[in-house]
Design a protein that fits this description.
0% strand, elongated, 152 residues, mainly alpha
Length: 152
């Protein structure tokens, strides 16, 4: 064996260069798998946080719609004689609960079959239909007439 010659390997042994290439390929493959796992985790975190944001938006939309309509029920008119406790203790909390629960449940169901942007459109449509249905069905007592003014 001269200074520039390499010793020959047996048939079952791989050369040093192929070992190094194999190790690099395995390392690159492992890095790609770890990177895709991180992307999947960040996508999952983004989708789950979108459900929380939709819950907050739903309860705010329900409150913005229902509280002004129920104003007379908790104002009660002259000396609070017309205070309607069923609106205050039953109907408003149920409306707010529906506004809190409906958007994230719709989001969870829609993201199973649709892309996230399409699921968001479905959530907006369901909330709009829910508010429209609420408008058609829920009629809390309003003021006694055009001459009614609030007390002092």
């Amino acid at each position: 064996m001269s200074g520039g010659d390499r010793p020959e390997k047996a048939e079952g042994e791989a050369s040093d260069e192929s070992d190094e290439r194999g190790e690099h390929a395995e390392h690159a493959e492992h890095a790609e798998h770890a990177e895709s796992a991180e992307n999947d985790e960040s996508d999952e975190l983004l989708l789950s946080s979108a459900g929380c944001v939709l819950a907050l938006a739903g309860i705010l939309a329900a409150a913005a719609y229902a509280v002004p309509r129920a104003e007379y029920s908790y104002d009660g008119g002259f000396e609070g004689q017309d205070t309607d406790w069923t609106v205050i203790l039953v109907e408003l909390p149920l409306i707010l609960l529906g506004g809190f629960a409906l958007p994230p449940l719709t989001w969870a169901a829609a993201t199973r079959y649709l892309r996230p942007w399409a699921a968001a459109l479905v959530c907006v449509a369901v909330v709009a239909l829910g508010l429209w249905g609420l408008d058609a069905v829920w009629h809390p007592q309003q003021g006694p007439g055009p001459g009614y003014e609030r007390g002092i």
